[in-house]
């Protein structure tokens, strides 16, 4: 989970915070990725080092491969599995090629989702209705709630205060702005989640 979140940070579509940030600063998919790749490499290395140091005593030096199930047994629908790889490749190409032409990333992702859903539904091996019902639709409600929270914080003066702090850090040089902004956002994210922190 940790490394998956970290490694996907150059992709705008990897989480809602990236989407909101890129949209606010009018960053395209390619531009966002080019800025975040060096940051991502550093974050992956730091995450791997910390995970190894923390869990090194729990990691066995060897394990019996015979105890593992065949990977093919985890695939319920071969057609959907193969289509998924094709869709992922086409999505990646589409994000880099079509997005600069003015086609929204959301539209590209939606087309890919519809194709994959249609293939899965046709195969009948996957309960697509159950997949839809089990989707985290509550994230939409959560996002709307966060907007309301942020508007309340803005009306209370927090946004203006934080703006002053960030301007102060920027006036004191690159290192002060970089570390100051990093520590400030990390602190706010730890007490009220990273989504409202970005919105504020």
What does this 3D model show about the protein?
- This protein is mainly α and 200 residues long.
- The chain folds into 3 domains: 1-59, no CATH class; 76-135; 136-200, no CATH class.
- It has 10 helices and no strands.
- The protein is globular, with a radius of gyration of 21 Å.
- The two termini are 26 Å apart.
- This is Arsenical pump membrane protein.
- The chain crosses the membrane at residues 32-55, 79-97, 103-120, 132-153, 173-192.
- It is a multi-pass membrane protein.
- It comes from Yersinia enterocolitica.
SSE sequence, one letter per element: HHHHHHHHHH
By DSSP, the count of extended strands is: 0
* CA gyration radius, whole angstroms: 21 Å
Taking pLDDT < 50 over at least 5 consecutive residues as the criterion, the unreliable ranges are: none
Mean pLDDT: 85
Q: Into which percent range does the helicity of residues fall?
A: over 70%
**Which structural class do you get from the secondary structure elements?**
mainly alpha
Number of helices: 10
Which percent range describes the beta-strand content? Answer: under 5%
Number of domains: 3
Categorize the overall geometry: globular
N- to C-terminal distance: 26 Å
How many strands, what sense, and barrel or not for the largest sheet? none
Transmembrane segments: 32-55, 79-97, 103-120, 132-153, 173-192
InterPro entries: Arsenical_pump_ArsB
Membrane topology: Multi-pass membrane protein
Protein name: Arsenical pump membrane protein
